Amino acid sequence: MFLIFSILLLSFSFSQIEYCTTENLTNSRSIYSIGDTLSVEDQNILFPVCNGSGEYSTGDSFSFSDLNGNANGGDYKISIISMNATWWPACYDYISLMDELIEVVEEYDELQFIVSLDYSSNEADTYSCSEWSDLYIELGEYDNNPLILDADPDHHIWNMFAASTYSAYAFIDHNMVLRYKFDMPNLYDFQYTYIPVLINSMYGCTDSSACNYEEGSVYNDGSCQYNEECSTCGDIENQLDCMNVEGCMWMGDHCMESNDNCMDYNNEFDCMNNDGCYWMGDHCMSGSNCTDPIAFNYNPIADLLGEGDNSTCQYSSYINFGCTYEGAINFDDSANVDDGLCEYMIGDINSDGILNILDIVQLVNLVLD
């Protein structure tokens, strides 16, 4: 009975931490769905800055058009919005995580982190804007000072991008398109998946006369191709035709240009002895033989063939390998990816960090087997 009560209590506690109440808020859906572009009217709405940070001082006004290069003279920004409600204590449980996220954001000129703060009508239950900012120092590790907008009295930012629950998070790209929405934050995914994708989409060939012109890019990365530089590989739809065209290589489901000489090698030995080349069973092509999906140079085809060598994998400097199991002898609190090398006390057969009857049961089963 005690166990059942404990489980119920634990489940209730987690449910309170995950979401903040939306009591007395009547909207059932947001104005914008993923893929929608913010209207000019909404981009130009002025929100009071109640806690200044970066280029904004307390008392200034903020608008999303400030981050739109088409409106401000070419300075494009990606918006990362954390929507918070002051009237529900569980909302500030994620502040320490947002403090970590600001550390990441500040490494990139292309990003702007924004806190949209909604208040309660009951003043006894609220934090002031400055008190909410102080929580980043009290609860965070890095003592960052966030840009906080007063989104009251109509919760307009929340109504635009969330409108179902607190906490809520939204990513708006440099072209003012709503790209991602979340009810809960995941720092790892934010840092290693969504932010890199959005930043990369800002760069490409911006010359409309080039054959590889990228309409969504706003910063030229020097990759534009013209006339004889242009490849027709991308127009080929099957592997056989792709492999018959010099300079083209098949990448599992599409044909693309090969910018090296890997395809000149007709045997596995010569192919694998050249950096950046990989043997694909019957032909040589560019690519690594890293099969770890979290690596920069992950090769899904090598992974599929089962012929990889992860000693060649290249990783982000933010990834720290180590033992992430707190019950292990060699637990590393700085590690964020487990390396599979955790060590446990002698007798801990099931490696749960505890010596108990379960270890004896498993030992007996091993003997019987």
How would you explain this protein's 3D organization?
With 369 residues, this protein is of the alpha/beta class. It is 26% helix and 15% strand. The strands form 5 sheets. Strands 2-1-5-4-3-6-7 form a 7-stranded mixed beta sheet. A two-stranded parallel ribbon has the order 8-9. Strands 10-11 form a two-stranded antiparallel sheet. Strand 10 (248-250) and strand 11 form a beta hairpin.
Distance linking N and C termini = 35 Å
The percentage of residues in β strands lies in: 15-25%
Please, what is the CATH homologous superfamily of the domain at 15-200?
Answer: Glutaredoxin
Number of helices: 11
In short:
With 369 residues, this protein is α/β, with parallel strands linked by helices. It is built from 11 helices and 15 strands.
Protein topology:
Elements: H1 2-18, H2 40-43, E1 47-51, E2 61-62, H3 69-72, E3 78-85, H4 95-105, E4 111-118, H5 129-139, E5 148-150, H6 156-161, E6 168-172, E7 178-182, H7 187-200, E8 203-204, E9 219-220, H8 239-243, E10 248-250, E11 255-257, H9 268-272, E12 277-279, E13 284-286, H10 300-305, E14 321-322, E15 337-338, H11 357-368
Parallel strand pairs: 3-4, 4-5, 8-9, 14-15
Antiparallel strand pairs: 1-2, 1-5, 3-6, 6-7, 10-11, 12-13
Which short descriptors sum up this protein?
369 residues; alpha/beta; Glutaredoxin; 7-stranded mixed β-sheet; two-stranded parallel sheet
